[in-house]
Amino acid sequence: MTKSVNQNAMAAFRSILGQSGCIEDPDLIAPWLKDWRGLYEGAAPALLAPDSTEQVAAVVKIASEHGIALVPQGGNTSMVGGATPPADGRALILSLRRMNRIRSIDPAAGIAVCEAGLILQTLHEAALAQGMRFPLSLAAKGSATLGGLASTNAGGTQVLRFGTMRGLTLGVEAVMPDGAIHDGLAPLKKDTRGYDPNQLLIGAEGTLGVITAVAVRLVRARAQRAVAWIGLDSPHRALRLLRHLERLSGDAIESFELIPDSSLAMVFAHLPDARAPLAGAHRWHVLIEAATDDNAHGLLEDALADAAGAGLLDDAVIAASEAQAEALWLLRESVSSAERAHGPAMQHDIAVPVDDMPRFMEEASLAIEAAFPGVSASGFGHLGDGNVHFHVRAPAGVDGPSWRAGEGKAASHMVYDLVTAANGSISAEHGIGQMKRDELARLSSPARLGVLRAVKQALDPKGLFNPGKLVPLAFESAAE
Q1: In order of start, what are the domains of the chain with their CATH numbers?
Q2: pTM given for the model
Q3: Does residue 478 surpass a pLDDT of 60?
Q4: For labelling alongside 240, which of 104, 229, 309, 334 has CA 20 to 30 A away?
């Protein structure tokens, strides 16, 4: 269902954005109404596409005056339905994709200032041309935007060394729900003026303000990198391997990705031209990337030889070229799409303490499979930061939507209960969106939930910014 919009408001939007920035054609809006996983579909009578912070502010003021809800959207790569408008058509999409400029790159200071709609890969390329790099990468780098990454506090594969988007964001520019512009782009190392709006906006999923630009940290482009693929028999052994390599190589290890053989098998089915990196069968696999100023290959080779001597791995291969390194990374980055192609599944982006991650991955899988006969469960992810992508796959031949709404939902409840019992988080890097909003309300402590609701109520009392996401206001239903 799509509701009509106040025509006075639409005329005001058109006067600010022009016809090209105020899209009402349903066919042009349609691709932006579904989430990346295809689980949520909303409705919106218009898509607004400003090309400056001032235009965003003007749009927000008009929307506030007329009580029109807005759903900020970047690359639309949310894994939790966080950028999908409500199904009742009461909200407009506020697309930041036209705001895609790099305002500045300062290699000496190690800072880039980028507009919210800039695609991550574009920043990677621009920084590299200046001898620098932005040390956050993920499979959706060709479509994910900087504003979306900040709004969800994205992580990716290099958190082990560089941290999440929160740690890489030095400043934020945003438009608040009343249309005021927050200019917090100055990268101040010391600032004790009380509550920090920048930190509130990072990870808020567009519910407190619309991020329009970010200042982010750059680091020197790595002179060399080395990528290796390891075969071993358990996640416990993988954690011992990680600790061993960290002792030998300092901070050279940037990525340490753990993958069960069942997930890798789905990748090979999904990518028929892909080849197994190692001979023989291995229950678990690890992808490692090390970066140094000199002889990364030699450093990783020596460290792995030492680890093999200590009995911490069964087999290993180090990429002999950039092409081989990229082929190894393609295997890891294809896990999610391969599992999606495999069939219905409940995907969980969760976090547990690093030292408890191996136990959780094994015991949670067994517990879920015992409680729900016919399903298969496994986890993969970033071992060094405790982030588990835990998937529960449906039995063969079931109706996907029906299974997800019934047994799949019950399995997810159990997964989140197990995570909470392990002192973990039900969202590690994808956010809450609409997918996990009920679970956040169910499992959060009264103190945490009270703070979230109080902040939302204070900054967006009308509930017009990204309605139905993250945490409900007192007058909203968590089942929207």
Answers
A1: 102-220 (3.30.465.10), 224-335 (3.30.70.2190), 343-421 (3.30.70.2740)
A2: 0.89
A3: no
A4: 334
